[in-house]
Amino acid sequence: MFANVTSEIALAFLSRYPTPASAARLGERRMASFCAKHGYSGRRPAAELLTRLRAAPAGVTADTQPEAGRDAVLALV
What dihedral angle (degrees, nearest 10) is formed by the CA atoms of 55, 59, 65, 71? Predict the structure, then answer.
């Protein structure tokens, strides 16, 4: 959803929302607030970022191990 997965904003997003479930209820207002808090340049509006997020392919991880997926993302961040 962000241009560079290793950018500060992408890493901050993954730290805050490390699983699909944690980002599922994210709305435009909260996304805009998150971007402002982290100094996002604003090249893409919150609505477009959310559209990209929701259009991303679903992962293939099992729903029975969300903690393991979360822990793996946080470890990589």
Answer: -80
Containing domain of residue 21, as a range? 8-76
Asked whether residue 3 is domain-assigned, the answer is no
Distance of CA 56 to the CA centre of its chain: 11
Evaluate whether residue 58 is within a structural domain: yes
Tens of each residue's pLDDT in the chain, 77 residues: 888 889 999 999 999 999 888 898 899 999 999 999 999 987 899 999 999 999 988 776 656 677 778 888 888 88
Q: Is residue 38 part of a domain?
A: yes
Alpha carbons 70 and 53: distance in angstroms, whole number? 17
Residue 13 Cα to chain centre, angstroms: 5
